[in-house]
Structures are given as C-alpha cells and as structure tokens.
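Weekly sync, protein design subgroup
Attendees: M.S., D.O., the rotation student, P.L. (late)

Item 1: inverse folding check
M.S. brought a backbone from last month's batch and wanted to see whether the design step gives back something sensible before we order anything. D.O. pointed out we never logged the input encoding, so this time it goes straight into the notes. Structure tokens as presented (369 positions):
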C-alpha cells in the first residue's frame, strides 16, 4: 500500500509539472520577454521548488529535485528573458519544450563539421553496451552495501562516490534515451570522459555534468562577470564570478540534500563547493602566471585531480548525502524494482495494461491532488 501511494504521488507530481510547463509554453507565445514574462512564470518557479517535498522515494525525489527544482527553474528564469535552451523558437513543439525544460538534456544544434574545434564540439555518444556495463557495475555496488561492515569506512565512502556517479550516469542516460525515442532528437551527453580530466577547471567546466555547467554559465557566471568587471577589473571579476557560481551550486546541492534526507544542512556540502571554487581560482591564477612553464604531464595531473575530487567528496560531500539512512531505503527500492521487472517479464502487467485506462488513471490522480 505504501509503495502504491509513492507511485501515485510521483505520477501526480509529474502531471503537475507538465501542466505547468504547458502554461509556460503558451505564456511565452503571448507575453514578451522581460519582467512581465518573469512575473507570469514566477509562480511555476516557486511551485517547482516545492513539488519534490511531495515525494519520499529516494530515486524519485533525487531525479525530480535535480530535473525540476534545479534545472527547470533555472531554464525558466532564462526563458523569461528569451535566453537559454528554452529561448523562443517558432518551430519548437510543446513536446520538445516540455522535454527540454523538465529533463537534463540539451538539443544539439546542427554544426558544420568543417568549423568545429576540439573544445567546442560536444562529446561523442556512448554505445549501448557502455551503459549495460554501468548498470551491471551499479548492481555490484548496491550488493556491496550488504557487506559494508567488512570494509574500511574510507573504502566504503569511495564506493558511495562511485555509486553516485553510476546513478547519475544511468538516470541521465535514461532521460536522453527517452527523449531520443519519443521526439527523435539527438542530445548531448552529460559526462565527457572523466578519466581524461587534467585540472579542476576542466573537470567542473568540460567533464562533469555538462548540463549543470551549461545552465550555471548563463544564469550565474556570465551576469556576475559582466556586472563586476567594471568595478573589479576582468581578472578579479572572473575570480569573483567563479566563487559565486560555486556558491549557487552549493546552495542547490544543499537543497537537494534536504529533499533526500529531510534534515537541516550542516554546511559541509557548501564547504565542499567553496573549497573547489577557491582551488579552481588558485589553479587558474597559477597557470596564467607560469605561462606554460614547468608543465605537469597530463597523466599525473589527471590522477592528482581525480584523487583530490574523490578525497574531498568523501570527506565533505558524500557523508552528508548518506546521513539519513539512504542506503537501506535505496536497497529496498532496488528490490522493489527487481520484483517489478520480474512481474513484467512474467506478463502479469502487460495483460492488465491498457493505455486508455492508464491515461484515465493519471487524470483522476491529478484531479485528486
């Protein structure tokens, strides 16, 4: 009964999301960009910040809070001024608008292959077997939680770091696959060969969770940079903009942590992001002053960068995410998914499923909200 209630709330929440995005889509057609459009869609932004509180399932609230409370709200703020991935395009359909707003995807523009440099080109898509391996690795990691008493606490923390990465990979891969299958659009991958990272700046800017980077740059970094350059000078303004961007990212991660654990923040997640922001600033400053002197081999810098990210995450970030007993709840949900897959393969769900009845059920749940 409890599992059914969670599913009902999840369905209700996403029906509300798409109803709200439909309102934003038609509002954009009728209201000019600027303060009036911002005022018109601001209730939706507030609603999206509250909706994850209705969900208690770990994986559902984690994905919903990331997709809606963070990415969608930032995209809508940009949309209010006709910027970002939702900028007015007469050819965009309602379905594409809702997908781009509610999923961690970005429609890849058609690029001229003769005019693409290595840094601007989107990373290549991974083959299907690559995600199968990730799914198998996730299953192994989840199984390790049953034996965590046998592991050293530090080793278990690194396993949790790896689990977070795998979970993000799979969630984002499912979102990309759904958008491609449903809308026929090609999408940019969200990660770009993390093992090739040669610096913290490269890790956060061009390797890790590219959708977050792409949404923070126009909403936070560029406005802060442009407004502070006159007062601080370009170099200091850039440092200040980097710190503000990491600060906003920290605040959003604290919010997601609250959605997951329903515990008040301790500030450690903020400390993690501010530490990395300060290190990115320091790294950039040192590189500029050295001007290419004493270069560090890329393999060495990659190892040092990944080690620093993992060690600081295991110290400040990961323990905060897992402080509410998430492991046990995640394991229960994985078991439930396994039972669901078993029931699907046995044909019991397919025999009782009818599309019209399912849509009627969804509409009924929306009205009962």
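Designed sequence read out in the meeting:
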């Amino acid at each position: 009964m409890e599992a059914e209630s969670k599913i009902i709330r999840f369905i209700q929440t996403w029906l509300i999301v798409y109803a709200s995005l439909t309102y934003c889509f038609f509002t954009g057609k009728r209201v000019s960009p600027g303060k009036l459009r911002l005022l018109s869609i601001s209730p939706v932004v507030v609603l999206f910040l509250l909706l994850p509180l209705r969900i208690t399932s770990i994986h559902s609230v984690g994905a919903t809070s990331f997709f809606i409370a963070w990415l969608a709200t930032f995209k809508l703020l940009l949309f209010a001024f006709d910027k970002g991935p939702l900028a007015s395009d007469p050819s965009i359909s309602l379905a594409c608008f809702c997908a781009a707003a509610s999923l961690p995807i970005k429609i890849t523009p058609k690029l001229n292959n003769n005019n693409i440099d290595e840094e601007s080109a989107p990373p290549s898509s991974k083959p299907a077997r690559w995600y199968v391996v990730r799914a198998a690795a996730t299953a192994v990691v989840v199984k390790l939680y049953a034996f965590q008493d046998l592991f050293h606490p530090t080793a278990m923390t690194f396993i949790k770091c790896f689990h977070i990465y795998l979970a993000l990979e799979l969630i984002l891969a499912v979102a990309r696959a759904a958008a491609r299958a449903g809308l026929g659009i090609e999408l940019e991958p969200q990660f770009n060969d993390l093992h090739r990272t040669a610096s913290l700046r490269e890790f956060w800017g061009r390797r890790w969770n590219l959708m977050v980077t792409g949404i923070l740059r126009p909403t936070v970094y560029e406005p802060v940079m442009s407004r502070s350059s006159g007062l601080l000078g370009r170099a200091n303004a850039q440092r200040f903009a980097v710190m503000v961007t990491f600060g906003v990212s920290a605040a959003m991660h604290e919010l997601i942590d609250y959605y997951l654990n329903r515990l008040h923040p301790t500030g450690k997640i903020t400390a993690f992001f501010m530490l990395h922001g300060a290190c990115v600033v320091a790294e950039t400053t040192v590189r500029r002053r050295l001007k290419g002197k004493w270069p560090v081999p890329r393999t060495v810098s990659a190892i040092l960068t990944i080690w620093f990210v993992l060690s600081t995450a295991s110290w400040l970030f990961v323990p905060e995410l897992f402080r509410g007993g998430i492991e046990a709840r995640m394991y229960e949900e994985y078991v439930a998914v396994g039972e669901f897959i078993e029931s699907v393969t046995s044909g019991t769900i397919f025999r009782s499923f009818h599309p019209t009845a399912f849509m009627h059920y969804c509409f009924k749940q929306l009205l009962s909200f």
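Discussion: The two ends are 18 Å apart (CA to CA). Residues 72 and 101 are 5 Å apart (CA to CA).
Action: P.L. to compare against the previous round before Friday.
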